[in-house]
């Protein structure tokens, strides 16, 4: 192996290793100017605290402008055993960002013989977003993610929201992003303040029912957010993060939840 691509065993920095090997995961297109066009974010993803941890959910539709390209896209992605990333923005950039994150965490674990801290994971995504600013300003690579992970040191599940420049914001209750997010943000706040009980006190089943209703509501007003289609076995993606790691709801479980969620007063 060339000396140039020796892994940085002192810090476990995977991104530095990528740069040493001549790969940079994101770089602006040379000669292209910044775009003032709106950031593409045709989707709805969300996360909120519930009684046992954090619930994260997203619709399944992928769009290109006004065209519906795919109805089975998974927008809640595992990054490691205790971390999930919900993506909104340009899919190619978002999926690659999630893959780099996953390799970053695993490289750190193997080279440092311990898992990366929750704070380190949060900052790692912030760093990727900062490195992606050039692409985002050119209008071809903007990503607006939600990241959730379990902090074993403080024994709590965490939610972070990021802006395009990489600033991270810890979310104490709930958050959402994507084109359908303005429609349901107020619903989440109203339900948390004046619903039957605060979101953080709801059971896993109650939290999942609420997530299904939120995504249904978003899909009624935002054409870029896909609706559930039971006749085609297409349902939202729902997952939780707690002390035991992440857990995705099985398709059959969501199929059972969906008609219950559509009933009034449940």
From TrEMBL:
Transcription among keywords: no
Keyword Cytoplasm: yes
Keywords noted in UniProt: Cytoplasm, Hydrolase, Protease, Proteasome
Gene Ontology biological-process entries: proteolysis involved in protein catabolic process
GO cellular component: cytoplasm; proteasome core complex
SUPFAM superfamilies: N-terminal nucleophile aminohydrolases (Ntn hydrolases)
One example GO MF annotation: peptidase activity
InterPro entries found in the cross-reference section: Ntn_hydrolases_N (IPR029055), Proteasome_sua/b (IPR001353), Proteasome_suB-type (IPR023333)
Pfam families: Proteasome
Name of this protein: Proteasome subunit alpha
